[in-house]
Amino acid sequence: MNLKFHGWFTECSPMWPGQAFSLKINKLIFDKKSQYQHIQIYETEKYGRMLVLDGAIQLTERDEASYQEMLAFLPLNSHPNPEKVLVIGGGDGGILREVAKHPAVKEIVMCEIDDHVVAACKEHIPSLASGFSDPRVTLHFGDGMEFLGSHAGKFDVIITDASDPVVPDDDEAGKDGPAATLFNDAFYARLHEKLNPEGVLACQGESMWLHKDLIKGLMKKSRELYPVVEYAYTCTPSYPCGQIGFILCSKNPTLNLRVPVTKWTSEEVKRLKLKYYNTDIHSASFVLPTFMTEFLSSD
Ligand code: SAM
């Protein structure tokens, strides 16, 4: 359920009960129900264009770089040679745009369930779209879980840029969205199979202010598969509580995800048009507040 009054968009969801973030909107510029979800693009007063899926804010032009750059470069710059990259979800194109900036990347495969998200974002938020025309990119439309089951190749880095597993419904508990299949054990096991021996996985990891139990559970499951598992985070005002995390896993037991192998100078940061990511923030993003460190280390 989303409340709209006096030109404001208010984001309510069972994933963050009892709180809501609002943005003043100038107009609704795209509105369509696809086979999978309700897709809307708004022009906001202060945050540029905004993509909303099933009532949940996916990105705004003003702050999307804080999420896309971190989810792309935390794994890519931790891996010594990230030649083959898989992106699951990410239909807006933002992760693809960033992955395509990395000089070591030779092949990018993306599996997105909803071609209408891609088409709508290409047309209405073109600042995200540069990656779609990159010759290294192959785009598949389908469910990420099924794709992993049928694709023969393996990858150096896998990034899952999924929407939330639960989406609002008329009833307060909400219902499973198309991304529900991307948050279960079977999906994590398949991701592991598709990673090369030195591979790094990075997943959208939800907010520590809202989903501590979910994060802890995902990290526990991941530790059954990977010798190195970490939670890092970024600050994105338009995401619930202004903070969203990433779960990062490595198959290489000696890899320190906190210290990037690829370190970019401030000139390179400028040349790559980065707004948020730099080498210092890479390491800093793994430093957690006391309440989270205590929670994650408790039984
Ligand atoms: N950064 C955003 C966030 O965390 O709010 C996510 C952005 S991106 C738009 C999420 C994408 O995941 C959507 O385009 C959606 O269609 C796609 N998606 C959802 N379920 C999927 C699935 N099972 N397989 C592949 N893509 C999926």
From TrEMBL:
<dbReference type="GO" id="GO:0004766">
    <property type="term" value="F:spermidine synthase activity"/>
</dbReference>
<keyword id="KW-0808">Transferase</keyword>
<comment type="similarity">
    <text>Belongs to the spermidine/spermine synthase family.</text>
</comment>
<dbReference type="InterPro" id="IPR029063">
    <property type="entry name" value="SAM-dependent_MTases_sf"/>
</dbReference>
<feature type="active site" description="Proton acceptor">
    <location>
        <position position="161"/>
    </location>
</feature>
<dbReference type="InterPro" id="IPR035246">
    <property type="entry name" value="Spermidine_synt_N"/>
</dbReference>
<dbReference type="InterPro" id="IPR030373">
    <property type="entry name" value="PABS_CS"/>
</dbReference>
<dbReference type="GO" id="GO:0005829">
    <property type="term" value="C:cytosol"/>
</dbReference>
<dbReference type="InterPro" id="IPR037163">
    <property type="entry name" value="Spermidine_synt_N_sf"/>
</dbReference>
<dbReference type="InterPro" id="IPR001045">
    <property type="entry name" value="Spermi_synthase"/>
</dbReference>
<keyword id="KW-0620">Polyamine biosynthesis</keyword>
<dbReference type="Pfam" id="PF17284">
    <property type="entry name" value="Spermine_synt_N"/>
</dbReference>
<dbReference type="GO" id="GO:0008295">
    <property type="term" value="P:spermidine biosynthetic process"/>
</dbReference>
<feature type="domain" description="PABS">
    <location>
        <begin position="6"/>
        <end position="251"/>
    </location>
</feature>
<dbReference type="Pfam" id="PF01564">
    <property type="entry name" value="Spermine_synth"/>
</dbReference>
<protein>
    <submittedName>
        <fullName>Spermidine synthase-like</fullName>
    </submittedName>
</protein>
<dbReference type="InterPro" id="IPR030374">
    <property type="entry name" value="PABS"/>
</dbReference>
